[in-house]
Amino acid sequence: MDKERKHIIFLARWYPHRYDPMFGLFVQRHAEAAALFNDITVIYCHSCERQQDNKTSRDISTTPIVNKQDVDDASNNKNKFEIVRTLENNVDTIRVYYKKPKNKILSLIRFYRANMKALKLCKKPDLIHVHILTRLGVIAWIQKLLHKTPYIITEHWSRYLPGNDFSGFLRKLFTKIVVCNAETITTVTENLAIAMKNHGLKNDNYVVLPNVVNLDMFHISERNNNPRKIIHISCFEDKSKNISGLLESLKIIEEKGIDFQCKLIGEGMDLELMKEKAKNLQLINKVSFTGLLQGQALADELSSGDFLVLSSNYENMPVVILEALASGLPVVSTNVGGIKEMVDETKGILVEPRNQEALAEAMIKMIETHKNYDANYLRNSVIEKYGYESVGRFLSGLYNNG
User: Fold this and answer.
1) Fewest Cβ atoms nearer than 10 Å: which of 110, 150, 352, 363?
2) What is the pLDDT of residues 217-269, one digit of tens each?
């Protein structure tokens, strides 16, 4: 097996970092799955308002493998770049933090310089795996032109979906170029692949790549909640996640005299606004906000619930749905993005987006029927497709075919 291992460089636009350990967590999981069968180096570059403000950042637990030369190179460049290289779950991870300039053009130049500095630290890869277009796709395309290094692309971004913003002549032009020259395009849902093709992003080899669930962490628990416990997990960005709509649906349920408790897990730009909305709706006794939960704390809270609810206006493939199913929880969700590719009538209830009454009725039905869902069946549906080893083998097949 070792002789067949290839060196793959992940160029990641989203990835956990010192300021947000949850950002792009699904990309990190893909890297960890791929590292079971290949040698993976991840490069992630992050702009900061100022350099070396580590005291205000969140530490990511890692094994450092920083070379002194790497640090010296960063410090000798007027603190514009700080390179941190670590080994994380067998993934060689290079993060470059760089000072964010006010000028957009200079910011773009510095982003490319940061990525090139990281690439110079790596041995020549057998293949480059781009996560999220378009800037990193240009880098991979240039590497292919200069060094004949093939590349594949995984797109996670929902900007191609109807109603979202995929615009700009240069952005569209370069996206078409890098997509056309990739060996393979993978998306996390068939729905996203169709949306990209509708924008003229042509490639003969589109493949759906499953997200990864840590099956060792998420588990089925015995629960006998009274009142019933509803779980919601999101990044608290109301435009996409529609937490305000969820709260309005919960108010409808409360006004019908149905007892429940709803735990809202996560943090983000609209968290305080949603807390205020819950207060204005007089839902304080029915809902609670836990803030950010990670790791086993998140898994334990999720498994203690009776079902998961999502109220998004648009999505791709929310990993939290897979985590809920792995915990034996059925799902109530809006039917957006690729969610219908994961949830059918054996796993939950789907409703149309932006319809608070329909969402409320679905939650009421789930409050009454959640015990009718087979928890082991829900978990096994995830094990078969979304475990680390399964996804790792899938990725290894793509790398060898590429």
Assistant:
1) 352
2) 999 998 889 999 999 999 999 999 999 999 999 999 999 999 999 999 999 99
Q: Do you know the residue count of the chain?
A: 402
Expressed as residue numbers, the domain containing 78 is 2-212+388-401
Calpha distance 159→156 (Å, rounded): 9
* Strand partners of residue 228: 260
pLDDT, position 231:
98
Structure pTM?
Answer: 0.82
Helix (H) or strand (E) holding 354: none
DSSP string of 267-326? --TTHHHHHHHHHHTT-TTTEEEEE---HHHHHHHHHTSSEEEE--SS-S--HHHHHHHH
Give the whole-angstrom CA distance, residue 299 versus residue 320: 10
CB 193 within 8 A of CB 206: yes
- Radius of gyration of the chain, Cα coordinates, nearest whole angstrom: 22
For residues 356 and 364, the answer to whether their CB atoms sit within 8 Å is no
Confidence tier at 50 by pLDDT (50, 70, 90): low
Q: What is the CATH number of the domain that holds 294?
A: 3.40.50.2000
How many domains does the chain fold into? 2
d(CA 138, CA 121): 19
Do 164 and 253 lie in a common domain? no
Q: Looking at the structure, do residues 191 and 288 belong to the same domain, yes or no?
A: no
Task: Count Cβ atoms below 10 Å from residue 136 Cβ, excluding itself.
Answer: 26
With bands split at pLDDT 50, 70 and 90, how would you rate the model's confidence at 68?
A: very low
